[in-house]
Protein backbone atom coordinates (compact mmCIF):
# COMPACT_ATOMS: atom_id res chain seq x y z
CA UNK A 1 0.00 0.00 0.00
CA UNK A 2 1.36 3.40 -1.00
CA UNK A 3 1.91 6.47 1.13
CA UNK A 4 -0.21 8.57 -1.25
CA UNK A 5 -3.50 8.04 -3.05
CA UNK A 6 -1.84 7.60 -6.44
CA UNK A 7 -3.66 4.70 -8.10
CA UNK A 8 -6.65 5.74 -10.24
CA UNK A 9 -9.37 3.41 -11.48
CA UNK A 10 -11.64 4.66 -14.27
CA UNK A 11 -14.83 2.82 -15.19
CA UNK A 12 -17.08 4.02 -18.03
CA UNK A 13 -20.70 3.99 -16.82
CA UNK A 14 -22.99 1.32 -18.36
CA UNK A 15 -20.61 1.51 -21.30
CA UNK A 16 -22.31 -0.45 -24.11
CA UNK A 17 -25.74 0.93 -23.26
CA UNK A 18 -24.38 4.46 -22.91
CA UNK A 19 -22.82 4.29 -26.39
CA UNK A 20 -26.16 3.14 -27.80
CA UNK A 21 -28.00 6.01 -26.09
CA UNK A 22 -25.42 8.47 -27.35
CA UNK A 23 -25.74 7.26 -30.95
CA UNK A 24 -29.54 6.79 -30.87
CA UNK A 25 -31.21 10.02 -29.69
CA UNK A 26 -34.64 8.38 -29.33
CA UNK A 27 -33.23 6.08 -26.60
CA UNK A 28 -31.75 8.76 -24.36
CA UNK A 29 -33.21 8.57 -20.87
CA UNK A 30 -34.96 5.28 -21.65
CA UNK A 31 -34.20 1.67 -20.60
CA UNK A 32 -31.66 0.03 -22.91
CA UNK A 33 -30.36 -3.53 -22.70
CA UNK A 34 -27.41 -4.68 -24.82
CA UNK A 35 -26.62 -8.34 -25.36
CA UNK A 36 -28.16 -11.38 -26.98
CA UNK A 37 -31.71 -10.61 -28.09
CA UNK A 38 -32.90 -14.18 -28.70
CA UNK A 39 -34.23 -16.77 -26.31
CA UNK A 40 -30.67 -17.84 -25.53
CA UNK A 41 -29.38 -14.32 -25.04
CA UNK A 42 -27.51 -12.95 -22.05
CA UNK A 43 -27.41 -9.31 -20.93
CA UNK A 44 -24.01 -7.70 -21.48
CA UNK A 45 -24.91 -4.24 -20.14
CA UNK A 46 -28.08 -2.52 -18.96
CA UNK A 47 -28.57 1.23 -18.80
CA UNK A 48 -29.27 2.75 -15.40
CA UNK A 49 -32.88 3.26 -16.46
CA UNK A 50 -33.16 -0.52 -16.98
CA UNK A 51 -31.32 -1.33 -13.75
CA UNK A 52 -34.14 0.31 -11.80
CA UNK A 53 -36.26 -2.66 -12.87
CA UNK A 54 -33.71 -5.20 -11.66
CA UNK A 55 -32.03 -5.86 -15.02
CA UNK A 56 -28.31 -6.59 -14.63
CA UNK A 57 -25.33 -8.00 -16.50
CA UNK A 58 -25.17 -11.79 -16.99
CA UNK A 59 -28.96 -12.12 -16.55
CA UNK A 60 -30.76 -14.10 -19.24
CA UNK A 61 -32.45 -11.89 -21.82
CA UNK A 62 -35.65 -13.81 -21.17
CA UNK A 63 -35.67 -12.70 -17.53
CA UNK A 64 -34.63 -9.16 -18.47
CA UNK A 65 -37.63 -8.92 -20.82
CA UNK A 66 -39.96 -10.08 -18.07
CA UNK A 67 -38.59 -7.44 -15.68
CA UNK A 68 -38.48 -4.57 -18.16
CA UNK A 69 -40.55 -5.42 -21.25
CA UNK A 70 -40.57 -1.81 -22.49
CA UNK A 71 -36.75 -1.62 -22.73
CA UNK A 72 -34.94 -1.44 -26.06
CA UNK A 73 -33.13 -4.77 -26.50
CA UNK A 74 -30.18 -4.36 -28.84
CA UNK A 75 -27.35 -6.51 -30.15
CA UNK A 76 -23.87 -5.13 -29.66
CA UNK A 77 -21.96 -2.93 -32.11
CA UNK A 78 -18.35 -3.72 -31.33
CA UNK A 79 -16.93 -1.16 -33.74
CA UNK A 80 -18.65 1.67 -31.83
CA UNK A 81 -17.49 0.41 -28.44
CA UNK A 82 -13.95 -0.12 -29.72
CA UNK A 83 -13.78 3.40 -31.13
CA UNK A 84 -15.00 4.98 -27.88
CA UNK A 85 -12.60 2.85 -25.85
CA UNK A 86 -9.68 3.87 -28.07
CA UNK A 87 -10.41 7.52 -27.36
CA UNK A 88 -10.57 6.98 -23.59
CA UNK A 89 -7.45 4.82 -23.41
CA UNK A 90 -5.60 7.44 -25.46
CA UNK A 91 -6.56 10.12 -22.93
CA UNK A 92 -5.34 7.92 -20.07
CA UNK A 93 -2.01 7.17 -21.78
CA UNK A 94 -1.53 10.87 -22.49
CA UNK A 95 -1.90 11.46 -18.76
CA UNK A 96 0.47 8.69 -17.60
CA UNK A 97 2.67 6.11 -19.34
CA UNK A 98 1.54 3.52 -16.80
CA UNK A 99 -2.00 2.49 -17.83
CA UNK A 100 -3.36 -1.01 -17.29
CA UNK A 101 -6.53 -1.66 -19.32
CA UNK A 102 -8.79 -4.29 -17.78
CA UNK A 103 -11.39 -4.26 -20.56
CA UNK A 104 -12.79 -1.86 -23.14
CA UNK A 105 -14.39 0.26 -20.43
CA UNK A 106 -12.07 0.28 -17.44
CA UNK A 107 -8.40 0.75 -16.58
CA UNK A 108 -5.95 1.53 -13.78
CA UNK A 109 -3.65 4.54 -14.06
CA UNK A 110 -0.50 5.10 -11.98
CA UNK A 111 -0.49 8.78 -11.02
CA UNK A 112 3.08 8.59 -9.72
CA UNK A 113 4.12 8.66 -13.40
CA UNK A 114 1.67 11.42 -14.39
CA UNK A 115 4.02 14.34 -13.70
CA UNK A 116 1.73 15.99 -11.14
CA UNK A 117 3.24 18.68 -8.88
CA UNK A 118 2.43 16.49 -5.86
CA UNK A 119 0.21 13.56 -4.91
CA UNK A 120 -1.82 15.20 -2.16
CA UNK A 121 -5.57 14.63 -2.12
CA UNK A 122 -6.57 18.06 -3.56
CA UNK A 123 -4.12 17.67 -6.43
CA UNK A 124 -5.22 14.18 -7.51
CA UNK A 125 -8.87 15.15 -7.05
CA UNK A 126 -8.51 18.12 -9.40
CA UNK A 127 -6.63 15.94 -11.91
CA UNK A 128 -9.37 13.29 -11.86
CA UNK A 129 -12.12 15.86 -12.31
CA UNK A 130 -10.36 17.33 -15.32
CA UNK A 131 -9.81 13.82 -16.74
CA UNK A 132 -13.52 12.99 -16.44
CA UNK A 133 -14.41 16.21 -18.25
CA UNK A 134 -11.99 15.36 -21.08
CA UNK A 135 -13.55 11.90 -21.39
CA UNK A 136 -17.02 13.42 -21.62
CA UNK A 137 -15.93 15.96 -24.23
CA UNK A 138 -13.89 13.62 -26.42
CA UNK A 139 -16.48 10.80 -26.42
CA UNK A 140 -19.38 13.19 -27.03
CA UNK A 141 -21.13 12.63 -23.73
CA UNK A 142 -19.99 9.35 -22.16
CA UNK A 143 -19.49 9.54 -18.40
CA UNK A 144 -16.91 7.81 -16.24
CA UNK A 145 -16.77 7.01 -12.55
CA UNK A 146 -13.33 7.36 -10.99
CA UNK A 147 -11.83 6.10 -7.75
CA UNK A 148 -8.41 6.99 -6.39
CA UNK A 149 -6.63 5.25 -3.54
CA UNK A 150 -3.39 3.91 -2.18
CA UNK A 151 -3.78 0.58 -4.03
CA UNK A 152 -5.59 -1.05 -6.90
CA UNK A 153 -8.08 -2.62 -4.49
CA UNK A 154 -9.01 0.64 -2.83
CA UNK A 155 -9.20 2.53 -6.14
CA UNK A 156 -11.54 -0.11 -7.59
CA UNK A 157 -13.78 -0.03 -4.53
CA UNK A 158 -13.84 3.78 -4.62
CA UNK A 159 -14.92 3.94 -8.28
CA UNK A 160 -18.05 1.92 -7.43
CA UNK A 161 -19.16 4.13 -4.54
CA UNK A 162 -20.75 7.03 -6.40
CA UNK A 163 -21.93 5.64 -9.74
CA UNK A 164 -22.78 6.90 -12.25
CA UNK A 165 -20.55 9.87 -13.06
CA UNK A 166 -18.88 9.88 -9.65
CA UNK A 167 -15.48 10.68 -8.19
CA UNK A 168 -14.26 9.31 -4.85
CA UNK A 169 -10.76 9.79 -3.44
CA UNK A 170 -9.86 7.68 -0.40
CA UNK A 171 -7.36 9.59 1.71
CA UNK A 172 -4.35 7.60 2.97
CA UNK A 173 -5.02 6.14 6.40
CA UNK A 174 -8.80 5.91 5.97
CA UNK A 175 -8.91 2.67 3.97
CA UNK A 176 -9.96 0.32 6.77
CA UNK A 177 -12.54 2.77 8.05
CA UNK A 178 -14.07 2.70 4.57
CA UNK A 179 -13.96 -1.08 4.19
CA UNK A 180 -15.12 -2.33 7.58
CA UNK A 181 -18.88 -1.78 7.16
CA UNK A 182 -18.91 -3.27 3.66
CA UNK A 183 -20.10 -6.76 2.77
CA UNK A 184 -17.32 -9.29 2.22
CA UNK A 185 -18.29 -9.58 -1.45
CA UNK A 186 -16.57 -6.22 -2.06
CA UNK A 187 -13.25 -8.10 -1.94
CA UNK A 188 -12.07 -9.43 -5.33
CA UNK A 189 -12.49 -13.18 -5.67
CA UNK A 190 -15.23 -13.45 -3.06
CA UNK A 191 -18.03 -14.96 -5.10
CA UNK A 192 -21.21 -16.77 -4.06
CA UNK A 193 -19.45 -19.94 -2.90
CA UNK A 194 -16.97 -18.08 -0.68
CA UNK A 195 -19.72 -15.77 0.60
CA UNK A 196 -21.72 -18.80 1.71
CA UNK A 197 -18.73 -20.41 3.44
CA UNK A 198 -18.00 -17.19 5.29
CA UNK A 199 -21.68 -16.69 6.17
CA UNK A 200 -21.80 -20.10 7.78
CA UNK A 201 -18.86 -19.04 9.92
CA UNK A 202 -20.67 -15.84 10.95
CA UNK A 203 -18.57 -13.59 8.69
CA UNK A 204 -20.65 -11.01 6.82
CA UNK A 205 -18.70 -7.75 6.72
CA UNK A 206 -15.08 -6.82 6.12
CA UNK A 207 -14.90 -5.97 9.83
CA UNK A 208 -15.96 -9.54 10.65
CA UNK A 209 -13.32 -10.82 8.25
CA UNK A 210 -10.63 -8.64 9.78
CA UNK A 211 -11.28 -10.22 13.18
CA UNK A 212 -10.59 -13.76 11.89
CA UNK A 213 -7.10 -15.23 12.18
CA UNK A 214 -5.09 -16.27 9.16
CA UNK A 215 -5.20 -19.90 10.31
CA UNK A 216 -9.00 -19.86 10.48
CA UNK A 217 -9.33 -18.27 7.03
CA UNK A 218 -7.00 -20.87 5.53
CA UNK A 219 -9.13 -23.58 7.09
CA UNK A 220 -12.32 -22.03 5.68
CA UNK A 221 -11.28 -21.23 2.11
CA UNK A 222 -7.83 -22.71 1.50
CA UNK A 223 -4.29 -21.44 1.74
CA UNK A 224 -3.98 -19.12 -1.26
CA UNK A 225 -7.47 -17.65 -1.01
CA UNK A 226 -7.29 -17.35 2.77
CA UNK A 227 -4.00 -15.48 2.66
CA UNK A 228 -5.40 -13.09 0.08
CA UNK A 229 -8.54 -12.38 2.10
CA UNK A 230 -6.48 -11.83 5.25
CA UNK A 231 -4.42 -9.15 3.51
CA UNK A 232 -7.24 -7.39 1.66
CA UNK A 233 -9.42 -7.23 4.78
CA UNK A 234 -6.62 -5.03 6.15
CA UNK A 235 -6.40 -3.01 2.90
CA UNK A 236 -2.99 -4.54 2.16
CA UNK A 237 -2.43 -4.64 -1.59
CA UNK A 238 0.95 -4.00 -3.22
CA UNK A 239 0.08 -4.90 -6.82
CA UNK A 240 1.63 -2.54 -9.35
CA UNK A 241 -0.04 -0.97 -12.38
CA UNK A 242 1.12 -3.13 -15.29
CA UNK A 243 0.94 -1.30 -18.65
CA UNK A 244 1.35 -4.52 -20.64
CA UNK A 245 -1.05 -7.13 -19.34
CA UNK A 246 -0.15 -10.64 -20.47
CA UNK A 247 -2.77 -12.84 -22.05
CA UNK A 248 -4.09 -15.04 -19.26
CA UNK A 249 -6.11 -17.49 -21.33
CA UNK A 250 -7.34 -18.32 -24.82
CA UNK A 251 -10.87 -19.62 -25.28
CA UNK A 252 -13.73 -20.28 -27.69
CA UNK A 253 -17.39 -20.71 -26.86
CA UNK A 254 -20.81 -20.74 -28.49
CA UNK A 255 -24.40 -20.19 -27.39
CA UNK A 256 -26.95 -22.26 -29.28
CA UNK A 257 -30.50 -21.57 -30.41
CA UNK A 258 -31.84 -24.90 -29.17
CA UNK A 259 -30.80 -27.01 -26.20
CA UNK A 260 -28.11 -29.54 -27.05
CA UNK A 261 -28.97 -33.03 -25.79
CA UNK A 262 -26.90 -35.27 -28.08
CA UNK A 263 -23.64 -36.06 -26.29
CA UNK A 264 -21.86 -36.96 -29.56
CA UNK A 265 -22.79 -33.57 -31.00
CA UNK A 266 -21.46 -31.81 -27.89
CA UNK A 267 -18.18 -33.67 -28.24
CA UNK A 268 -17.92 -32.60 -31.88
CA UNK A 269 -18.51 -28.98 -30.91
CA UNK A 270 -15.88 -29.15 -28.16
CA UNK A 271 -13.45 -30.68 -30.64
CA UNK A 272 -14.03 -27.84 -33.10
CA UNK A 273 -13.58 -25.25 -30.35
CA UNK A 274 -10.39 -26.97 -29.16
CA UNK A 275 -8.96 -26.69 -32.69
CA UNK A 276 -9.86 -22.99 -32.77
CA UNK A 277 -8.11 -22.44 -29.44
CA UNK A 278 -5.04 -24.42 -30.57
CA UNK A 279 -4.82 -22.40 -33.78
CA UNK A 280 -4.91 -19.13 -31.83
CA UNK A 281 -2.29 -20.41 -29.39
CA UNK A 282 -0.02 -21.42 -32.25
CA UNK A 283 -0.49 -18.06 -34.00
CA UNK A 284 0.57 -16.23 -30.82
CA UNK A 285 3.46 -18.59 -30.12
CA UNK A 286 1.84 -19.77 -26.88
CA UNK A 287 0.96 -23.02 -25.17
CA UNK A 288 -0.94 -23.81 -21.98
CA UNK A 289 -1.17 -26.32 -19.15
CA UNK A 290 -4.77 -25.98 -17.93
CA UNK A 291 -7.75 -26.95 -20.08
CA UNK A 292 -11.18 -25.74 -18.95
CA UNK A 293 -14.65 -26.35 -20.30
CA UNK A 294 -17.63 -24.09 -19.66
CA UNK A 295 -21.09 -25.61 -19.81
CA UNK A 296 -24.30 -23.61 -19.32
CA UNK A 297 -27.27 -25.89 -18.72
CA UNK A 298 -30.88 -25.41 -19.80
CA UNK A 299 -31.76 -23.82 -16.43
CA UNK A 300 -28.91 -21.27 -16.83
CA UNK A 301 -26.67 -23.02 -14.30
CA UNK A 302 -23.06 -22.56 -15.43
CA UNK A 303 -20.48 -25.26 -14.75
CA UNK A 304 -16.71 -25.02 -15.18
CA UNK A 305 -14.39 -28.02 -15.07
CA UNK A 306 -10.60 -27.98 -15.46
CA UNK A 307 -7.66 -30.31 -15.70
CA UNK A 308 -3.95 -29.45 -15.68
CA UNK A 309 -1.16 -31.08 -17.67
CA UNK A 310 2.37 -31.58 -16.31
CA UNK A 311 3.71 -29.45 -19.19
CA UNK A 312 2.14 -26.95 -21.61
CA UNK A 313 0.70 -27.92 -24.99
CA UNK A 314 -0.63 -26.25 -28.13
CA UNK A 315 -2.00 -29.46 -29.62
CA UNK A 316 -5.62 -29.28 -30.72
CA UNK A 317 -5.93 -33.03 -30.36
CA UNK A 318 -4.71 -32.98 -26.76
CA UNK A 319 -6.95 -30.05 -25.82
CA UNK A 320 -9.95 -31.74 -27.46
CA UNK A 321 -9.32 -35.06 -25.72
CA UNK A 322 -9.11 -33.41 -22.32
CA UNK A 323 -12.20 -31.29 -22.99
CA UNK A 324 -14.24 -34.34 -23.96
CA UNK A 325 -13.05 -36.13 -20.84
CA UNK A 326 -14.21 -33.22 -18.67
CA UNK A 327 -17.61 -33.25 -20.36
CA UNK A 328 -18.00 -36.95 -19.63
CA UNK A 329 -18.19 -36.21 -15.90
CA UNK A 330 -21.15 -33.84 -16.25
CA UNK A 331 -24.87 -34.59 -16.35
CA UNK A 332 -26.13 -32.80 -19.45
CA UNK A 333 -29.31 -34.81 -19.90
CA UNK A 334 -31.52 -31.77 -19.34
CA UNK A 335 -29.95 -29.89 -22.23
CA UNK A 336 -27.06 -27.48 -22.79
CA UNK A 337 -27.33 -23.94 -24.14
CA UNK A 338 -23.63 -22.93 -24.14
CA UNK A 339 -20.35 -24.79 -24.57
CA UNK A 340 -16.83 -23.45 -24.38
CA UNK A 341 -13.20 -24.54 -24.23
CA UNK A 342 -10.34 -22.50 -22.79
CA UNK A 343 -6.64 -22.93 -22.11
CA UNK A 344 -4.78 -21.06 -19.35
CA UNK A 345 -1.47 -21.35 -17.52
CA UNK A 346 0.14 -20.00 -20.66
CA UNK A 347 3.79 -20.29 -21.65
CA UNK A 348 5.85 -19.52 -24.74
CA UNK A 349 7.26 -23.04 -25.09
CA UNK A 350 6.09 -26.67 -25.23
CA UNK A 351 7.81 -29.68 -23.70
CA UNK A 352 8.71 -31.14 -27.08
CA UNK A 353 10.71 -28.00 -27.92
CA UNK A 354 13.33 -29.11 -25.39
CA UNK A 355 14.02 -32.36 -27.19
CA UNK A 356 13.40 -31.54 -30.83
CA UNK A 357 10.37 -31.89 -33.05
CA UNK A 358 7.80 -34.58 -32.37
CA UNK A 359 4.79 -35.58 -34.39
CA UNK A 360 1.45 -34.09 -33.41
CA UNK A 361 -1.15 -36.48 -32.09
CA UNK A 362 -3.66 -37.01 -34.90
CA UNK A 363 -7.29 -36.08 -34.23
CA UNK A 364 -9.79 -37.76 -36.57
CA UNK A 365 -11.83 -35.29 -38.59
CA UNK A 366 -15.39 -35.07 -37.30
CA UNK A 367 -18.25 -34.03 -39.58
CA UNK A 368 -19.13 -30.36 -39.25
CA UNK A 369 -22.13 -30.12 -36.87
CA UNK A 370 -25.21 -28.68 -38.56
CA UNK A 371 -26.08 -26.24 -35.81
CA UNK A 372 -26.30 -22.49 -35.61
CA UNK A 373 -24.85 -20.42 -32.81
CA UNK A 374 -26.93 -17.44 -31.72
CA UNK A 375 -24.21 -14.99 -32.78
CA UNK A 376 -24.13 -16.52 -36.28
CA UNK A 377 -27.77 -15.82 -37.11
CA UNK A 378 -28.01 -13.85 -40.38
CA UNK A 379 -30.34 -10.98 -41.06
CA UNK A 380 -31.21 -7.68 -39.48
CA UNK A 381 -30.42 -7.51 -35.76
CA UNK A 382 -31.96 -4.88 -33.45
CA UNK A 383 -29.55 -1.98 -33.00
CA UNK A 384 -27.59 -2.72 -36.18
CA UNK A 385 -26.35 0.26 -38.20
CA UNK A 386 -27.97 0.56 -41.62
CA UNK A 387 -28.17 3.05 -44.48
CA UNK A 388 -31.00 3.58 -46.96
CA UNK A 389 -30.34 4.97 -50.41
CA UNK A 390 -32.93 7.74 -49.94
CA UNK A 391 -33.40 8.11 -46.18
CA UNK A 392 -29.74 7.90 -45.17
CA UNK A 393 -28.34 6.34 -42.01
CA UNK A 394 -30.30 4.74 -39.21
CA UNK A 395 -30.56 1.63 -37.08
CA UNK A 396 -32.69 -1.50 -37.00
CA UNK A 397 -35.58 -1.02 -34.59
CA UNK A 398 -36.96 -4.50 -35.14
CA UNK A 399 -37.19 -7.29 -37.69
CA UNK A 400 -39.20 -10.41 -38.38
CA UNK A 401 -41.74 -12.04 -40.71
CA UNK A 402 -39.99 -10.61 -43.74
CA UNK A 403 -40.08 -7.00 -42.51
CA UNK A 404 -37.33 -4.78 -41.10
CA UNK A 405 -38.22 -1.57 -39.26
CA UNK A 406 -35.66 1.24 -39.17
CA UNK A 407 -35.42 4.44 -37.16
CA UNK A 408 -33.48 7.03 -39.13
CA UNK A 409 -31.24 8.99 -36.77
CA UNK A 410 -27.61 9.30 -35.72
CA UNK A 411 -25.76 10.80 -32.79
CA UNK A 412 -25.68 14.15 -34.64
CA UNK A 413 -29.42 14.32 -35.44
CA UNK A 414 -32.64 14.65 -33.46
CA UNK A 415 -34.79 11.57 -32.85
CA UNK A 416 -35.78 10.47 -36.34
CA UNK A 417 -38.68 8.91 -38.21
CA UNK A 418 -39.50 5.18 -38.31
CA UNK A 419 -40.04 3.32 -41.56
CA UNK A 420 -40.62 -0.36 -42.42
CA UNK A 421 -39.30 -2.23 -45.46
CA UNK A 422 -39.21 -5.73 -46.87
CA UNK A 423 -36.13 -7.44 -45.47
CA UNK A 424 -34.79 -7.90 -49.03
CA UNK A 425 -35.35 -4.27 -50.05
CA UNK A 426 -32.45 -3.45 -52.42
CA UNK A 427 -32.26 0.13 -51.14
CA UNK A 428 -31.46 -0.92 -47.55
CA UNK A 429 -27.90 -1.92 -46.62
CA UNK A 430 -25.78 -2.78 -43.62
CA UNK A 431 -23.46 0.09 -42.69
CA UNK A 432 -19.91 -0.03 -41.34
CA UNK A 433 -17.76 2.98 -40.37
CA UNK A 434 -14.96 1.92 -42.73
CA UNK A 435 -17.35 2.40 -45.65
CA UNK A 436 -17.69 6.10 -44.86
CA UNK A 437 -13.90 6.45 -44.47
CA UNK A 438 -13.14 4.66 -47.72
CA UNK A 439 -16.04 6.06 -49.71
CA UNK A 440 -16.99 2.51 -50.63
CA UNK A 441 -20.51 1.60 -51.73
CA UNK A 442 -22.81 0.23 -49.00
CA UNK A 443 -22.51 -3.42 -48.07
CA UNK A 444 -25.26 -5.57 -49.54
Describe this structure in words.
This protein is an alpha+beta fold. It folds into 4 domains: 1-171, Reverse transcriptase/Diguanylate cyclase domain (Alpha-Beta Plaits); 177-232, 5' to 3' exonuclease, C-terminal subdomain (DNA polymerase, domain 1, Orthogonal Bundle), CATH 1.10.150; 249-375, 2-Layer Sandwich (Dna Ligase, domain 1), CATH 3.30.1490.100; 385-438. The chain is built from 14 helices and 17 strands. The strands form 4 sheets. It has a 5-stranded mixed β-sheet. A 5-stranded antiparallel β-sheet has the order 16-15-14-13-17, with no helix packed on it. A 4-stranded antiparallel β-sheet has the order 9-12-10-11, with helices on one face. Helix 4 (78-95) packs antiparallel against helix 5 (121-138). The protein is globular, with a radius of gyration of 24 Å. The model is unreliable at 351-368, 370-377 and 440-444 (pLDDT under 50).
Keywords:
444 residues; alpha+beta; DNA polymerase, domain 1; Dna Ligase, domain 1; five-stranded mixed β-sheet; five-stranded antiparallel β-sheet; 14 helices; DNA-directed DNA polymerase activity; DNA polymerase IV; DNA/RNA_pol_sf; DNApol_IV
- At the fourth level of CATH, the homologous superfamily of the largest domain is Reverse transcriptase/Diguanylate cyclase domain
Question: Could you name the CATH topology of the largest domain?
Answer: Alpha-Beta Plaits
> Largest sheet, if any?
5 strands, mixed
The average pLDDT is 88
Rg value: 24 Å
Strand order across the largest sheet? 5-6-1-7-8
Number of helices: 14
Shape: globular
Distance between the termini: 56 Å
| Oligomeric category | single chain
Sheet-strand content, in percent, reads 15-25%
In CATH, the architecture of the largest domain is 2-Layer Sandwich
Amino acid sequence: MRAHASVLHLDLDAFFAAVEQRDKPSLRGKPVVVGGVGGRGVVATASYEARKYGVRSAMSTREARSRCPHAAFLTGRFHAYRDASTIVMGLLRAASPLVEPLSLDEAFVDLEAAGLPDLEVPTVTAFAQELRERVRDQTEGLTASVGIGTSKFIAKVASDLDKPDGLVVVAPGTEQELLRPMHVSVIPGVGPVTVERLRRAGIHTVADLEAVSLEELVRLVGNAHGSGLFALARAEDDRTVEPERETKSVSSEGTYDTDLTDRALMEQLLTRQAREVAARLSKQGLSGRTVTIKVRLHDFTTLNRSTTLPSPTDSGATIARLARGLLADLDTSGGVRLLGVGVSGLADWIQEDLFGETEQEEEPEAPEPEIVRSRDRPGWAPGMDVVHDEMGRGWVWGAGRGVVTVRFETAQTPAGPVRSYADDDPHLHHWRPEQAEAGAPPEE
